[in-house]
Amino acid sequence: MSQHDFNIANQGFPSTRADLNAALQALGSNSSGATAPSTTYPYQFWYDSTTDSLKMRDETNSLWITIGTFNQGTGVFTPSLAEAGLGTAAYEDIGFFATAAQGAKADALSGRNLIINGSGRINQRSYVSGTATVGANKFTLDRWFVVTSGQSLTYTGTEAGRTMTAPAGGVSQVIESGNIVGGTYVINWTGTATCTVGGVARAKGDTFTLTANTNTTVKFSSGTFSEVQVELGSIVTPFERVDIGVELAKCQRYFTRDLGVDMTGWPAVSGITNTRRFFVEFPVSMRSLPTVSGQNAGNIGTLTVGTTTPQSLRLSGEVGSDLECAMSAGLVLDAEIIA
Questions:
Q1: Over 90: is that where the pLDDT of 227 sits?
Q2: Architecture of domain 255-334
Q3: pTM of the model
Q4: CB count, 10 Å around CB of 165?
Q5: pLDDT value at residue 320
Q6: Phi, psi of 244, rounded to the nearest 5 degrees
Q7: ∠244-248-249 over CA atoms, to 5°?
Q8: Are 166 and 222 in contact (CB under 8 A)?
């Protein structure tokens, strides 16, 4: 730690020399330290040794602006504005200039948000805003479940983006373990709701440590929330907006419905009278073996589920005189996480 108030006291020569040396050392080290300098000035630099980030005091001397982070092991500097994808104009404001390589790096950061459906765009269950849940931990908009039985999630907006309101008991999403590499993460969102991550209260922009390959629950309570983002690192970047088809596919890893099945023309199972067997391939590979429901069928006396994998399942059905049979309501597949 090397910090100084840059005020040379009225003192004798040996003390003055020591004071000057300490001030110059602080300047040379960018006022490095685990905490911010106690005395600050507009445009002052500070190297935050806790997060290995370089910060500059704003012109009003009221807050710190993060310029970027350093990996001291590899010697790599990551500009925060490049991560945000703000381009050349934003760099010119603080004397940096975006390069083509930095622009490519910003593009490479696609997929940084560990929260799925962070603005509530996907609603495969056709959940109606404000509908009371029957039982605890019931899902509403995709990936978001109401924790307390009888409470509800309300929302406004469209598929372009929704603002959700969480009840007192909370609305949660579990980040799957395989998406967590471990280390320092940062959370941000819009709205008035309170938030916990892994049961610990978090404010907007808070950083915290997540354990690799361990499920983590993010919960919002008693207020509005949208544009939820959890990402690796200590710098908040703008909310990641992805194509709605990509968002849907991410959600289908955990839940999908209305998979219609046509049995027309399928041959009978050898040695079994009037029985047809067929495989249903899922839109995406699911997180785990899903539970299967919603098996209403036309012209089928008995429908049974056979082998199920994260990619497909086998159905067998007994038919009557009409060999052309189809699912009339489709399948519901659920591989969601609540803990």
A1: yes
A2: Sandwich (2.60)
A3: 0.68
A4: 21
A5: 61
A6: -65, -30
A7: 120
A8: yes
Fold of 138-251: Jelly Rolls (2.60.120)
Phi (first) and psi of residue 117, to 5 degrees = 60, 45
Write out pLDDT tens, residues 284-335: 999 999 998 876 666 666 677 788 899 988 877 776 655 555 555 578 999 9
Which part of the chain has CATH 2.60.40? 255-334
pLDDT in tens, 129-160: 999 999 999 999 999 999 999 999 999 999 99
- The neighbour count for residue 75, using CB atoms within 10 Å, is 7
3-state secondary structure of 264: coil
Structure tokens at 204: 């907007």
Report d(CA 215, CA 80) in Å as an integer: 27
In whole angstroms, what is the distance from residue 166 CA to residue 193 CA? 7
Position 296 scores a pLDDT of 64
165 residue type, one letter? T
> Which residue spans of the chain are classified as CATH 2.60.120?
138-251
Angstrom distance (rounded) from CA 121 to CA 262: 30
Question: For residues 48 and 38, is the Cβ–Cβ distance under 8 A?
Answer: no
What are the C-alpha distances in Å from 15 to residues 23, 38, 97, 317? Answer: 12, 21, 42, 93
If one counts every other C-beta atom within 10 angstroms of the C-beta of residue 164, the result is 26
Query: Strand order of the sheet with strand 138-139?
Result: 138-139, 145-146, 171-175, 216-221, 194-197, 200-202
Cα–Cα dist 195/176, whole Å: 18
Q: How confident is the model at residue 19 (pLDDT cuts 50, 70, 90)?
A: confident
Token pair of 247, please? 């968002």
Cα 119 to chain centroid, rounded: 10
Task: Provide the pLDDT confidence category of residue 102 given band limits of 50, 70 and 90.
Answer: very low
What pLDDT score does 94 carry? 35
307: part of which helix (H) or strand (E)?
Answer: strand 300-308
Contacts of 64 (CB under 8 A, 6+ apart): 36, 46, 55, 56, 57, 58
